[in-house]
Design goal:
coenzyme a biosynthesis, disordered N terminus, 16% strand, alpha/beta, 10 helices, Rossmann fold, two-stranded antiparallel ribbon, five-stranded parallel β-sheet, binds dephospho coenzyme A, single chain, binds adenosine-5'-triphosphate
Length: 243
């Protein structure tokens, strides 16, 4: 009952405003609504909270956007964090060590060592993904169920590999955050101490940023200031009726 009310209120607001299906920023801190004859489509017919997929290439600013969304009261489920928990489980570590010998030491994953082997070769990365991703998905489903029980009407699913996993079909809306490659590289080098080559190796294993943008319902350009980013996040939430 409550859920259909949310769905209707989203539709009403967007019908009334005849606003954007897509929000883009052509320059930092400037948000432009592109008109679309159709109201924003809320796709899911399934019960449970509506899902806002949050994705983007390495270093685009997903975690930063996720923090803003949390700050606005939304429940954010973080696939990277779940992957980290999964890769602490003995069962997963045994599978990883068997597939990538030498990457687990004293029961702890050597993340740089695994990265060096996995991101160097698509077949190896596929093998790692096959171990980790089903477990991450199961945990995300469990978290979503918990959020539903707590009364959440929307959940944000922060999933770096949303398009790579074909998960967009299960989302009610997809928000892609993006920034120019060189800026993403510089930000990740600064944040994580990775080399330029390490960042580029990961980027090369992801769906190209241009393809992500093309598939998005909302594109947030994070090539500028944090204030500009925040303004775009608020515009997207407004268009979804969550502002
Ligand atoms: C290889 C691992 C150990 C490296 O750990 P590390 O701490 O260096 O990176 P972290 O997990 O924080 O990921 C940082 C970013 O790297 C990129 N990345 C991570 N895994 C992948 C992947 N399988 N394919 C492409 N890009 C990836 C994403 O942009 C991600 O946001 C780790 O990333 C991992 O276990 N990856 C497999 C699980 C996975 O796909 N996680 C991402 C989404 S669920
Ligand atoms: N607009 C901005 N201005 C300055 N720094 C920023 C901005 N947006 C994000 N950053 C910084 O850039 C780095 C990358 O951002 P963030 O961690 O949010 O990206 P991500 O997409 O989650 O990365 P990953 O794919 O590695 O998980 C962080 O250190 C973050 O604080």
């Amino acid at each position: 009952m409550q859920k259909s009310h949310v769905c209707c209120s989203v539709r009403q607001r967007i019908d009334a405003q005849l606003t954007a299906r897509r929000v883009t920023a052509l320059a930092p801190a400037i948000v432009t609504a592109m008109t679309d004859p159709a109201p924003f489509p809320i796709r899911s017919q399934s019960p449970g909270p509506k899902r806002l997929g949050l994705t983007g290439s390495i270093g685009a600013g997903k975690s930063t956007v996720a923090a803003l969304l949390r700050g606005r009261g939304l429940t954010v489920l973080d696939a990277d964090a779940q992957a980290r928990l999964v890769t602490e489980q003995p069962e997963t570590l045994a599978l990883i060590e068997a597939a990538f010998p030498g990457t687990v030491r004293d029961g702890v994953l050597d993340r740089p060592a695994l990265s060096a082997v996995a991101f160097a070769d698509p077949a190896r990365l596929a093998r790692l993904n096959a171990i980790v991703h089903p477990r991450v998905r199961a945990r995300m489903t469990a978290l979503e169920r918990r959020a539903a029980e707590a009364g959440a009407r929307w959940v944000v699913q922060d999933i770096p590999l949303l398009f790579e996993g074909g998960l967009e079909a299960g989302m009610d809306a997809v928000l892609v955050v993006d920034a120019p490659l060189e800026l993403r590289v510089a930000r990740v080098m600064e944040r994580s101490g990775f080399s330029r080559e390490e960042v580029l190796a990961r980027d090369a294993r992801q769906t190209p940023a241009a393809d992500k943008r093309a598939k998005a319902d909302f594109v947030i350009d994070n090539g500028g200031t944090l204030a500009g980013l925040e303004a775009q996040v608020d515009a997207a939430l407004e268009a979804l009726g969550l502002g």
